[in-house]
Protein backbone atom coordinates (compact mmCIF):
# COMPACT_ATOMS: atom_id res chain seq x y z
CA UNK A 1 0.00 0.00 0.00
CA UNK A 2 1.33 3.42 -0.92
CA UNK A 3 1.98 5.84 1.93
CA UNK A 4 -0.49 8.68 2.02
CA UNK A 5 1.16 12.03 1.34
CA UNK A 6 0.45 14.50 4.15
CA UNK A 7 0.07 18.06 2.80
CA UNK A 8 2.51 20.62 4.15
CA UNK A 9 1.18 23.59 6.08
CA UNK A 10 2.19 25.78 3.15
CA UNK A 11 0.16 23.70 0.71
CA UNK A 12 -2.88 23.88 3.01
CA UNK A 13 -2.57 27.66 3.16
CA UNK A 14 -2.21 27.84 -0.63
CA UNK A 15 -5.27 25.62 -1.08
CA UNK A 16 -7.53 28.07 0.70
CA UNK A 17 -10.00 29.46 -1.89
CA UNK A 18 -11.05 33.09 -1.67
CA UNK A 19 -14.51 33.49 -0.19
CA UNK A 20 -14.40 30.06 1.45
CA UNK A 21 -13.61 28.63 4.87
CA UNK A 22 -10.19 27.12 5.55
CA UNK A 23 -9.11 23.59 4.61
CA UNK A 24 -9.75 21.09 7.40
CA UNK A 25 -6.07 20.58 8.21
CA UNK A 26 -5.71 24.21 9.26
CA UNK A 27 -8.28 23.63 11.98
CA UNK A 28 -7.46 20.14 13.22
CA UNK A 29 -3.77 19.32 12.74
CA UNK A 30 -1.38 19.46 15.70
CA UNK A 31 1.50 20.85 13.64
CA UNK A 32 -0.72 23.70 12.47
CA UNK A 33 -1.74 24.36 16.07
CA UNK A 34 1.92 24.66 17.10
CA UNK A 35 2.56 27.00 14.17
CA UNK A 36 -0.47 29.08 15.18
CA UNK A 37 0.84 29.39 18.73
CA UNK A 38 4.23 30.52 17.45
CA UNK A 39 2.91 33.01 14.92
CA UNK A 40 -0.25 34.44 16.49
CA UNK A 41 0.33 34.00 20.23
CA UNK A 42 4.08 34.63 20.47
CA UNK A 43 4.90 37.00 17.60
CA UNK A 44 1.73 39.11 17.56
CA UNK A 45 0.19 41.26 20.28
CA UNK A 46 -2.42 39.43 22.34
CA UNK A 47 -4.73 40.57 25.13
CA UNK A 48 -4.12 38.64 28.37
CA UNK A 49 -6.05 40.61 30.98
CA UNK A 50 -6.67 43.95 32.62
CA UNK A 51 -5.03 46.27 35.10
CA UNK A 52 -7.95 45.59 37.44
CA UNK A 53 -6.88 41.93 37.56
CA UNK A 54 -4.14 43.27 39.88
CA UNK A 55 -5.85 46.23 41.49
CA UNK A 56 -3.67 46.51 44.62
CA UNK A 57 0.08 46.43 45.28
CA UNK A 58 1.13 42.81 45.70
CA UNK A 59 -1.68 41.41 43.55
CA UNK A 60 -0.43 38.91 40.98
CA UNK A 61 -1.99 36.47 38.55
CA UNK A 62 -0.54 33.85 36.22
CA UNK A 63 -1.67 33.44 32.60
CA UNK A 64 -0.49 30.45 30.58
CA UNK A 65 -0.18 30.70 26.79
CA UNK A 66 0.98 27.39 25.34
CA UNK A 67 4.35 26.58 26.92
CA UNK A 68 4.76 30.17 28.12
CA UNK A 69 3.66 31.23 31.60
CA UNK A 70 3.32 34.92 32.45
CA UNK A 71 3.06 36.77 35.76
CA UNK A 72 0.93 39.92 35.67
CA UNK A 73 1.44 41.91 38.89
CA UNK A 74 1.33 45.31 40.53
CA UNK A 75 4.48 46.29 42.44
CA UNK A 76 4.78 48.17 45.70
CA UNK A 77 4.76 51.53 43.87
CA UNK A 78 1.54 50.64 42.04
CA UNK A 79 3.30 49.96 38.73
CA UNK A 80 1.84 47.14 36.60
CA UNK A 81 4.45 44.69 35.29
CA UNK A 82 4.54 41.46 33.31
CA UNK A 83 7.29 38.84 33.73
CA UNK A 84 7.98 35.37 32.43
CA UNK A 85 7.12 32.88 35.18
CA UNK A 86 10.57 31.30 34.97
CA UNK A 87 13.15 31.37 37.76
CA UNK A 88 16.56 32.59 36.55
CA UNK A 89 18.27 29.76 38.44
CA UNK A 90 17.19 26.51 36.80
CA UNK A 91 13.89 27.50 35.25
CA UNK A 92 11.36 26.41 37.84
CA UNK A 93 7.90 27.96 37.79
CA UNK A 94 7.71 30.58 40.52
CA UNK A 95 3.94 30.97 40.92
CA UNK A 96 1.14 28.52 40.33
CA UNK A 97 -1.74 29.37 38.02
CA UNK A 98 -4.41 31.90 38.92
CA UNK A 99 -4.51 34.94 41.21
CA UNK A 100 -2.53 35.38 44.42
CA UNK A 101 -1.11 38.05 46.74
CA UNK A 102 2.65 38.32 47.20
CA UNK A 103 5.14 40.55 48.98
CA UNK A 104 8.03 39.07 47.01
CA UNK A 105 8.31 36.42 44.32
CA UNK A 106 9.90 33.35 45.90
CA UNK A 107 10.83 30.34 43.81
CA UNK A 108 9.66 27.29 45.81
CA UNK A 109 12.52 25.12 44.48
CA UNK A 110 15.65 26.80 45.88
CA UNK A 111 14.18 29.95 47.44
CA UNK A 112 15.61 32.42 44.96
CA UNK A 113 13.69 35.57 45.83
CA UNK A 114 12.74 38.48 43.56
CA UNK A 115 11.39 41.92 44.28
CA UNK A 116 8.06 42.79 42.62
CA UNK A 117 10.11 44.95 40.25
CA UNK A 118 11.80 41.75 39.02
CA UNK A 119 15.24 42.25 40.57
CA UNK A 120 16.86 39.23 42.20
CA UNK A 121 17.09 39.99 45.93
CA UNK A 122 18.26 36.72 47.45
CA UNK A 123 20.05 33.66 46.03
CA UNK A 124 21.40 31.45 48.84
CA UNK A 125 24.64 29.48 48.58
CA UNK A 126 25.77 31.02 45.28
CA UNK A 127 29.12 32.34 46.58
CA UNK A 128 30.67 35.74 47.06
CA UNK A 129 31.42 36.23 43.37
CA UNK A 130 27.84 35.63 42.19
CA UNK A 131 26.44 38.63 40.28
CA UNK A 132 22.74 39.15 41.06
CA UNK A 133 22.48 42.12 38.70
CA UNK A 134 22.13 40.03 35.55
CA UNK A 135 19.62 37.57 37.02
CA UNK A 136 16.46 39.64 37.16
CA UNK A 137 13.24 38.07 35.96
CA UNK A 138 12.76 38.38 32.20
CA UNK A 139 10.28 41.15 31.49
CA UNK A 140 7.60 40.74 28.83
CA UNK A 141 6.86 43.41 26.21
CA UNK A 142 3.46 44.81 27.13
CA UNK A 143 1.18 47.78 26.62
CA UNK A 144 -1.62 48.88 28.91
CA UNK A 145 -4.15 50.37 26.52
CA UNK A 146 -6.64 52.19 28.75
CA UNK A 147 -6.26 49.39 31.28
CA UNK A 148 -6.34 46.49 28.79
CA UNK A 149 -3.10 44.46 28.98
CA UNK A 150 -1.60 43.45 25.63
CA UNK A 151 1.63 41.45 25.48
CA UNK A 152 3.97 40.26 22.75
CA UNK A 153 6.33 37.39 23.55
CA UNK A 154 8.65 38.25 20.68
CA UNK A 155 11.75 40.38 21.14
CA UNK A 156 10.58 42.33 18.08
CA UNK A 157 6.93 43.23 18.73
CA UNK A 158 4.94 44.70 15.82
CA UNK A 159 4.80 48.47 16.01
CA UNK A 160 1.39 48.89 14.37
CA UNK A 161 -0.21 48.39 17.78
CA UNK A 162 0.32 52.15 17.98
CA UNK A 163 -2.85 52.62 15.91
CA UNK A 164 -4.88 50.42 18.24
CA UNK A 165 -3.54 52.39 21.19
CA UNK A 166 -4.27 55.75 19.55
CA UNK A 167 -7.84 54.86 18.63
CA UNK A 168 -8.81 53.09 21.84
CA UNK A 169 -7.22 55.50 24.32
CA UNK A 170 -9.59 58.15 22.99
CA UNK A 171 -12.63 55.89 22.80
CA UNK A 172 -12.20 54.24 26.19
CA UNK A 173 -11.22 57.33 28.19
CA UNK A 174 -14.78 58.02 29.50
CA UNK A 175 -15.13 54.43 30.74
CA UNK A 176 -11.94 54.64 32.86
CA UNK A 177 -11.33 50.89 32.71
CA UNK A 178 -8.32 51.22 35.02
CA UNK A 179 -10.76 52.11 37.80
CA UNK A 180 -13.11 49.20 37.39
CA UNK A 181 -13.29 45.91 39.28
CA UNK A 182 -14.10 42.40 38.14
CA UNK A 183 -17.60 41.64 39.38
CA UNK A 184 -17.54 38.13 37.92
CA UNK A 185 -15.28 35.90 35.85
CA UNK A 186 -16.02 32.64 34.08
CA UNK A 187 -13.87 30.23 32.07
CA UNK A 188 -15.46 28.09 29.38
CA UNK A 189 -13.44 25.46 27.49
CA UNK A 190 -14.80 25.09 23.97
CA UNK A 191 -14.25 21.78 22.19
CA UNK A 192 -13.01 23.42 19.02
CA UNK A 193 -10.09 25.16 17.34
CA UNK A 194 -9.37 28.76 18.33
CA UNK A 195 -9.99 29.95 14.77
CA UNK A 196 -13.50 28.51 14.87
CA UNK A 197 -14.07 30.42 18.11
CA UNK A 198 -12.96 33.64 16.43
CA UNK A 199 -14.96 32.96 13.27
CA UNK A 200 -18.09 32.36 15.30
CA UNK A 201 -17.60 35.67 17.09
CA UNK A 202 -17.04 37.64 13.89
CA UNK A 203 -20.47 37.01 12.38
CA UNK A 204 -24.05 37.32 13.55
CA UNK A 205 -25.50 35.18 10.76
CA UNK A 206 -26.27 32.66 13.51
CA UNK A 207 -27.51 35.11 16.15
CA UNK A 208 -31.28 35.23 15.65
CA UNK A 209 -31.55 31.43 15.67
CA UNK A 210 -29.17 30.80 18.57
CA UNK A 211 -28.94 33.83 20.87
CA UNK A 212 -32.43 34.90 22.00
CA UNK A 213 -31.05 36.56 25.15
CA UNK A 214 -28.43 38.61 23.29
CA UNK A 215 -30.80 39.63 20.52
CA UNK A 216 -32.92 41.62 22.96
CA UNK A 217 -30.16 44.26 22.95
CA UNK A 218 -27.91 43.28 20.01
CA UNK A 219 -28.94 44.03 16.42
CA UNK A 220 -27.81 41.21 14.13
CA UNK A 221 -28.46 43.37 11.04
CA UNK A 222 -25.46 45.49 12.06
CA UNK A 223 -23.14 42.77 10.75
CA UNK A 224 -24.71 42.31 7.32
CA UNK A 225 -27.73 40.84 5.55
CA UNK A 226 -28.95 40.03 2.04
CA UNK A 227 -31.55 42.68 1.16
CA UNK A 228 -33.03 40.51 -1.59
CA UNK A 229 -33.88 37.78 0.91
CA UNK A 230 -36.06 40.06 3.04
CA UNK A 231 -39.79 40.55 2.76
CA UNK A 232 -40.91 44.07 1.84
CA UNK A 233 -41.81 44.67 5.49
CA UNK A 234 -38.45 43.40 6.78
CA UNK A 235 -36.60 45.36 4.09
CA UNK A 236 -38.36 48.56 5.15
CA UNK A 237 -37.45 47.84 8.78
CA UNK A 238 -33.81 47.20 7.84
CA UNK A 239 -33.63 50.42 5.82
CA UNK A 240 -35.11 52.30 8.75
CA UNK A 241 -32.51 50.81 11.07
CA UNK A 242 -29.62 51.74 8.75
CA UNK A 243 -30.91 55.30 8.54
CA UNK A 244 -31.18 55.42 12.33
CA UNK A 245 -27.64 54.09 12.61
CA UNK A 246 -26.23 56.75 10.35
CA UNK A 247 -28.10 59.48 12.19
CA UNK A 248 -27.18 58.15 15.63
CA UNK A 249 -23.48 57.85 14.68
CA UNK A 250 -23.47 61.37 13.26
CA UNK A 251 -25.05 62.78 16.41
CA UNK A 252 -22.78 60.84 18.76
CA UNK A 253 -19.70 62.09 16.92
CA UNK A 254 -20.95 65.67 16.93
CA UNK A 255 -21.37 65.36 20.69
CA UNK A 256 -17.74 64.28 21.05
CA UNK A 257 -18.17 60.51 21.27
CA UNK A 258 -16.08 58.74 18.58
CA UNK A 259 -18.36 56.13 17.05
CA UNK A 260 -17.64 55.35 13.39
CA UNK A 261 -16.06 52.00 12.54
CA UNK A 262 -12.26 51.81 12.54
CA UNK A 263 -10.87 48.65 10.94
CA UNK A 264 -7.33 47.27 10.70
CA UNK A 265 -8.18 43.79 9.44
CA UNK A 266 -6.12 42.96 6.34
CA UNK A 267 -2.73 44.07 5.02
CA UNK A 268 -1.64 44.65 8.61
CA UNK A 269 0.00 42.82 11.49
CA UNK A 270 -2.11 43.87 14.49
CA UNK A 271 -5.72 42.96 13.74
CA UNK A 272 -8.58 44.94 15.31
CA UNK A 273 -11.97 46.50 14.72
CA UNK A 274 -13.97 48.95 16.82
CA UNK A 275 -17.31 50.70 16.45
CA UNK A 276 -20.00 52.18 18.66
CA UNK A 277 -23.03 49.95 18.17
CA UNK A 278 -26.65 50.78 18.82
CA UNK A 279 -28.23 48.87 21.69
CA UNK A 280 -31.72 47.74 20.78
CA UNK A 281 -34.88 47.86 22.90
CA UNK A 282 -34.44 50.04 25.98
CA UNK A 283 -31.03 50.94 24.55
CA UNK A 284 -28.97 50.97 27.74
CA UNK A 285 -27.03 47.73 28.18
CA UNK A 286 -26.60 44.11 27.09
CA UNK A 287 -28.96 42.65 29.68
CA UNK A 288 -32.11 40.54 29.41
CA UNK A 289 -34.28 43.68 29.14
CA UNK A 290 -31.64 46.04 27.66
CA UNK A 291 -31.74 48.29 30.73
CA UNK A 292 -28.65 49.01 32.82
CA UNK A 293 -27.55 46.37 35.33
CA UNK A 294 -25.62 48.89 37.44
CA UNK A 295 -26.86 52.26 38.60
CA UNK A 296 -23.25 53.37 39.16
CA UNK A 297 -21.92 54.16 35.70
CA UNK A 298 -18.33 53.61 34.60
CA UNK A 299 -15.73 56.36 34.74
CA UNK A 300 -17.06 59.76 33.80
CA UNK A 301 -20.08 58.36 31.96
CA UNK A 302 -23.26 60.29 32.71
CA UNK A 303 -25.50 58.73 30.07
CA UNK A 304 -26.88 55.25 29.49
CA UNK A 305 -27.77 55.88 25.82
CA UNK A 306 -24.28 55.86 24.30
CA UNK A 307 -24.53 52.34 22.92
CA UNK A 308 -21.90 49.60 22.99
CA UNK A 309 -18.31 50.44 22.10
CA UNK A 310 -17.13 47.09 20.81
CA UNK A 311 -13.53 46.06 20.15
CA UNK A 312 -12.19 42.83 18.79
CA UNK A 313 -8.74 41.47 18.02
CA UNK A 314 -7.48 38.05 17.05
CA UNK A 315 -7.74 36.67 20.58
CA UNK A 316 -10.40 38.80 22.28
CA UNK A 317 -13.65 40.66 22.00
CA UNK A 318 -14.93 43.38 24.31
CA UNK A 319 -18.08 45.42 24.88
CA UNK A 320 -18.03 48.71 26.80
CA UNK A 321 -21.35 50.18 27.90
CA UNK A 322 -22.28 52.98 30.25
CA UNK A 323 -22.90 50.73 33.23
CA UNK A 324 -20.51 47.82 32.69
CA UNK A 325 -18.09 46.13 30.32
CA UNK A 326 -17.64 42.55 29.15
CA UNK A 327 -14.16 41.33 28.15
CA UNK A 328 -13.58 37.89 26.61
CA UNK A 329 -10.08 36.51 26.05
CA UNK A 330 -9.29 33.49 23.85
CA UNK A 331 -6.43 31.14 24.81
CA UNK A 332 -5.78 28.06 22.62
CA UNK A 333 -5.23 24.86 24.61
CA UNK A 334 -4.85 22.35 21.78
CA UNK A 335 -5.90 21.95 18.16
CA UNK A 336 -9.38 21.02 19.37
CA UNK A 337 -9.78 22.88 22.68
CA UNK A 338 -9.98 26.61 23.38
CA UNK A 339 -10.35 28.53 26.62
CA UNK A 340 -12.72 31.52 26.55
CA UNK A 341 -12.20 33.62 29.69
CA UNK A 342 -14.92 36.23 30.24
CA UNK A 343 -14.79 39.06 32.78
CA UNK A 344 -17.63 41.43 33.75
CA UNK A 345 -16.43 44.85 34.89
CA UNK A 346 -18.22 47.47 36.98
CA UNK A 347 -17.13 50.71 38.60
CA UNK A 348 -14.59 49.94 41.34
CA UNK A 349 -16.87 51.48 43.97
CA UNK A 350 -20.05 49.71 42.84
CA UNK A 351 -21.53 47.43 45.50
CA UNK A 352 -23.22 44.17 44.57
CA UNK A 353 -26.86 44.12 45.63
CA UNK A 354 -26.85 47.88 46.10
CA UNK A 355 -25.57 49.35 42.83
CA UNK A 356 -25.84 46.28 40.61
CA UNK A 357 -27.59 42.95 40.32
CA UNK A 358 -25.00 40.25 39.54
CA UNK A 359 -27.47 37.93 37.82
CA UNK A 360 -28.78 40.69 35.59
CA UNK A 361 -25.20 41.78 34.87
CA UNK A 362 -24.05 38.33 33.73
CA UNK A 363 -27.05 36.34 32.46
CA UNK A 364 -26.92 37.40 28.79
CA UNK A 365 -23.24 36.72 28.14
CA UNK A 366 -23.18 33.54 30.23
CA UNK A 367 -25.99 32.21 28.05
CA UNK A 368 -24.40 33.52 24.85
CA UNK A 369 -20.99 32.02 25.62
CA UNK A 370 -22.51 28.64 26.45
CA UNK A 371 -24.50 28.72 23.22
CA UNK A 372 -21.42 29.67 21.23
CA UNK A 373 -19.46 26.88 22.89
CA UNK A 374 -21.98 24.36 21.58
CA UNK A 375 -21.83 25.88 18.08
CA UNK A 376 -18.03 25.79 18.03
CA UNK A 377 -17.97 22.14 19.11
CA UNK A 378 -20.41 21.31 16.32
CA UNK A 379 -18.23 23.16 13.83
CA UNK A 380 -15.08 21.39 14.97
CA UNK A 381 -16.76 17.98 14.77
CA UNK A 382 -17.83 18.87 11.25
CA UNK A 383 -14.42 19.94 9.97
CA UNK A 384 -12.95 16.69 11.35
CA UNK A 385 -15.38 14.70 9.21
CA UNK A 386 -13.81 13.32 5.99
CA UNK A 387 -16.87 14.68 4.16
CA UNK A 388 -15.96 18.29 5.03
CA UNK A 389 -15.19 20.55 2.08
CA UNK A 390 -14.55 24.28 2.68
CA UNK A 391 -17.83 26.11 2.12
CA UNK A 392 -18.62 29.59 0.80
CA UNK A 393 -18.94 32.55 3.10
CA UNK A 394 -22.04 34.71 2.82
CA UNK A 395 -21.00 37.88 0.94
CA UNK A 396 -23.41 39.78 3.17
CA UNK A 397 -23.20 38.24 6.64
CA UNK A 398 -19.70 36.72 6.75
CA UNK A 399 -17.48 39.39 5.22
CA UNK A 400 -15.43 39.59 8.42
CA UNK A 401 -14.74 35.86 8.25
CA UNK A 402 -13.34 36.33 4.74
CA UNK A 403 -11.10 39.12 6.05
CA UNK A 404 -9.98 37.03 9.01
CA UNK A 405 -9.14 34.01 6.83
CA UNK A 406 -7.23 36.25 4.40
CA UNK A 407 -5.30 37.88 7.25
CA UNK A 408 -4.57 34.49 8.82
CA UNK A 409 -3.12 33.06 5.59
CA UNK A 410 -1.12 36.22 4.88
CA UNK A 411 0.41 36.27 8.36
CA UNK A 412 1.32 32.57 8.18
CA UNK A 413 3.04 33.17 4.85
CA UNK A 414 4.83 36.19 6.31
CA UNK A 415 6.39 33.89 8.91
CA UNK A 416 7.62 31.36 6.39
CA UNK A 417 4.77 28.89 6.15
Automatic annotation (TrEMBL):
Q: Which PROSITE patterns match?
A: RIESKE (PS51296)
> Record's InterPro entries?
Rieske_2Fe-2S (IPR017941), Rieske_2Fe-2S_sf (IPR036922), Ring_hydroxy_dOase_asu_C_dom (IPR015879), Rng_hydr_dOase-A (IPR001663)
Taking the record's annotation, the residue ranges forming a coiled coil are none
Q: Which UniProt keywords apply?
A: 2Fe-2S, Iron, Iron-sulfur, Metal-binding, Oxidoreductase
Q: Which domain of life does the protein's organism represent?
A: Bacteria
Q: Name one GO molecular function term.
A: 2 iron, 2 sulfur cluster binding
Domain (Rieske): give its ranges. 49-151
Requisite cofactors: Fe cation
Which segments cross the bilayer?
none
Q: Which Pfam families match?
A: Rieske (PF00355), Ring_hydroxyl_A (PF00848)
Q: Which SUPFAM superfamilies match?
A: Bet v1-like, ISP domain
Which PANTHER family does the UniProt record give? CHOLINE MONOOXYGENASE, CHLOROPLASTIC
Q: What is the protein named?
A: (Fe-S)-binding protein
Query: What is the species listed in this Swiss-Prot or TrEMBL entry?
Result: Tianweitania populi
Amino acid sequence: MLDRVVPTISSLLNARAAGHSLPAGLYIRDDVFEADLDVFFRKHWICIGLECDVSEAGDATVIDIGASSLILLRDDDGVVRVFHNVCRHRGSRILDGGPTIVSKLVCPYHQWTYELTGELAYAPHMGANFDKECRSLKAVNFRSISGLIYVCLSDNPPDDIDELERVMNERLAPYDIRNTKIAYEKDVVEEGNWKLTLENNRECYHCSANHPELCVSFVDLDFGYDPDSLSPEDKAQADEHLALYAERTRRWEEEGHPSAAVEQLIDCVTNFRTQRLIISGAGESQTYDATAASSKLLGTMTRKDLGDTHLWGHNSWKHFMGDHAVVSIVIPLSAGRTLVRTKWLVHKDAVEGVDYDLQKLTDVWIATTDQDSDLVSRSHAGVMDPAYIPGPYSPFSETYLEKFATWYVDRMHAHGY
